[in-house]
Amino acid sequence: MPESGLTPELMKEMYYVMALSRALDDRLWVLNRQGRAPTVYSSNGHEATQVGSAFALRRGEDWIVPYYRDMALVLAWGMTAREVMLHFFAKAEDPNSGGRQMMAHWGSGRLHVLSTGAVVATQDAHAAGLALASKILKDGRVSVCYFGDGSTSQGEFHEALNFAAVHKLPVIFFNENNGYAISVPLSKQTVVQDISARAAAYGIPGIMVDGSDPVKVYEVTKAAADRARRGEGPTLIEAKTYRFVPHSSEDDDRAYRSREEVQEHKKHDPVITFAERLLKDKILTEADKKAMAAKIKQVVDDATTYADKAALPDPSTLGQYVYGGALA
Amino acid sequence: MAVKTFLEAIREGLRQELARDPRVIIYGEDVGVRGGVFRVTDGLQAEFGADRVMDSPLAEAAIVGTAIGAAVNGLRPIPEIQFADFIFPAINQIVQEAARMRYRSNNDFEVPIVIRAPFGGGVRGGLYHSQSVEAFFAHVPGMCVVIPSTPYDAKGLLAAAVDQPDPVLFLEHKALYRSVRAEVPEERYVIPLGKADRKREGRDVTVIGYGLMVGFALSAAQTLAEEGISLEVIDLRSIRPFDREAILESARKTGKVMIVHEDNKTGGFGAEISAVIAEEALFYLDAPIVRLTGPDVPAMGFSPPLEHAFMVTAEKIAEAARELARF
User: Fold this and answer.
1) Do B66 and A129 count as a contact with CB atoms less than 8 A apart?
2) If you compute the radius of gyration of chain B from its CA atoms, what whole number of angstroms results?
3) In this structure, what CATH number is given to the domain that contains residue B222?
4) A108: which of A219, B123, B185, B218 lies 20 to 30 Å off by Cα?
5) Among this protein's residues, is B173 annotated catalytic?
6) What's the predicted TM-score (pTM) here?
7) Domain ranges, residue B59
8) ipTM surpassing 0.90, yes or no?
9) What count of CB pairs under 8 Å joins A to B?
10) What kind and span of H or E run contains B211?
11) pLDDT tens digits for A97-132?
């Protein structure tokens, strides 16, 4: 076993989740275009970044605080395709929010995925806070927040990194830098070339990694998590990635980037290149790959059918869960 | 029972919460070594250690945002915002994150935090050390907003706030810190949120208030009693949730209601109380509802005459109540 703990079995599992996420993602777009659900937020293109990092952590025990791009991440973390689809269709059984939140606002107490809102960078402080509790309670957990490049312009990104650095908290700030905040390119967010360079301002390590390589992402995340568990404080990781689809189903990315640019990036599609690599290294066989594809199709079909038939929330529940305790 | 100031009662309450529950932590700007700029947390870091009573970077959004995460992962944070006027950088974390967390997660997560903040004027604080911020937060379902008026209430309400598994904004009027003292039981006791206290029974006019205004109303009641006018004083103690029944019962009894707060008039909490009475007790009223409040100007002036002109005082309450009694 390599020092990082990344076994061939785990690599196969990583590929499975990446491919599942892509297939599920593709299905969401179809369902959206059929008018069966109003909104898609995609992780299409980010799969290696998200799955690679998730596998380096104690899935379900450590905390993640995702953002709306992170479907592959939550799938890697233990959310099922059915659960994603229930969320997408806003059904009562949706474990993320019971149909209360728009698609891609992940959250699960069972899985240690902290519920998220839509104002970006708020989750950075939440991850630092989760880690503050871990430090005091000595529970051995690492907390990881995920965020896009645009959100690093927010004050709370700075506040959270600074707070975590001062208190040496076991937290990883994980930036999925795809170069665009909806339509605004990184050059209009910051003159700094690399988000990871910002770590210097907080006296913490800033690590840049190729987000299309899940093994490299795994390795840097593992190192950052080990460092956090040793009590050495936070790390900022920047994974350079690319989103192959518009920001959401309401966006049209032709307005701000050329088809040539997108095609160029698709040559390095992580779902394809990782499969090729696993085949070449004889970790995966053609037969495995085919069997996985068949299973994925079945899982996506099952999730679609299941969630489609599931009950919508009862409007009489609208007033539930405003308060707890004595005021419930 | 020992006699304590408002500030000492809060400090004793905090000390007891730290002692009884290892999950309780306190942090904020200057709360550790210095013991807070008002000295509310004086001595607590020495007693409980720098992990449990800690100085944080000067960043309000991070203070509240990290408290949210810490609460989710098992702690019961009591963050301090040094002055209520400085709470606005954290308003998104409070309103959109802390207060919506239970609802948006369909009860999967809760955020048990008590945000303490000194507020209010009449202390030569000028624009940014005098504000009353309660109405912004009382508007928000999922929030609790607690505003004690006495040392006894402060300690009992603080215990209730810590017990409540939701975000509570605990507003401490700065002018009360050292100006009032009263007997406070040594042991922990809980005053439930959402229960008003009739601080004085009367028959002619009901005065409804909270925080510093309650004491002012009581002294106005004393003055007017000598003139044969009987004021009933209702202390709301918390404005979200607030005690509708106590308000309605008193309004129905006296038929004349005056609402007092230091916050601006327009959209202030008095408007909500007034609306509830109009909706549910209109035909018991013998006079229009009166709101005696801070004026609709952006903030309190610094120079004494400007500050005095802004503040609601016992004299102003007495004058307005006298007029209402004669209506």
Assistant:
1) yes
2) 19
3) 3.40.50.920
4) A219
5) no
6) 0.97
7) 2-184
8) yes
9) 162
10) none
11) 999 999 999 999 999 999 999 999 999 999 999 999
